[in-house]
Amino acid sequence: MRAFSAAAATLIIAVLCGVTIQAAEAADTVRVRGTVESIDGSELTVKTREGNSTAIKLNDNWKVIGVVKASIDDIKPGDFVGIASLPKSRGGDGAVEVLIFPAAMKGTGEGSYPWDLKPNSTMTNATVSNAVKDVDGRNITVNFHGKEKTISVAEGTVIVTFGPAAQSDLKPGMTVFVPSQKADDGTLSAANVVAGTNGVAPPM
Questions:
Q1: Could you identify which of 13, 34, 93, 124 might form a hypothetical disulfide with 48, taking C-beta atoms 3.0 to 4.6 angstroms apart as the criterion?
Q2: Cα 101 to Cα 161: distance, rounded to the nearest angstrom
Q3: What is the pLDDT of residues 6-33, one digit of tens each?
Q4: What are the b/e assignments for 151-188, b being 16+ CB within 10 Å?
Q5: Phi, psi for residue 53 in degrees, rounded to 5
Q6: For the chain, what are the domain ranges?
């Protein structure tokens, strides 16, 4: 995986405070998921996964954070990861997606809390203590705030990390994840856009 400069790490830490904020998150935060319909100056229009066209005002000096493909073999003990998971019928949790944080971001949004990627999903941001190979993938045990949780990661689970991107990379049709703030009048604004690069969609 690519190394990050201190400046890039600081930027991504800032955006992740909006992306993987804990359960005490402000009620006016709206996570917009979908594809770019258009971008006109400081206004981004996203065709959401629900099928609506949603306009988002981009704040001054807005940034794009890239998402790039990673591998299960990239996950090592001591790494800090964000895992969206769902309860399994036979017990325990199964990963829906895994985000490997750059080393400079260790500790970002640490904890395990409800997430809105899918109904009943949970986001767990924690440190990997082990990743044991299983018949259908791996069981990853993570630690956060003195607690331990084991999540199974099946073969084919989407695994990504962050990579550099620029405003000019944002194009119609690109899949994005936009942590936005909702004003009293219902309008949305955002300082950052998480976007897939090289065909990799943000799985958050």
A1: 34
A2: 6
A3: 444 444 544 554 444 433 344 588 899 9
A4: bbbeeebbbbbbbbbeeeebeeebbbbbbbbeeeeeeb
A5: -95, 120
A6: 6-66+162-196, 69-160
**Minimal CA–CA distance to 174: which of 31, 36, 32, 33?**
36
Q: What is the CATH number of domain 6-66+162-196?
A: 2.40.50.140
pLDDT value at 40 more than 80: yes
CA distance linking residue 33 with residue 178, whole number of Å: 6
Q: Do 80 and 101 form a contact (C-beta atoms < 8 A)?
A: yes
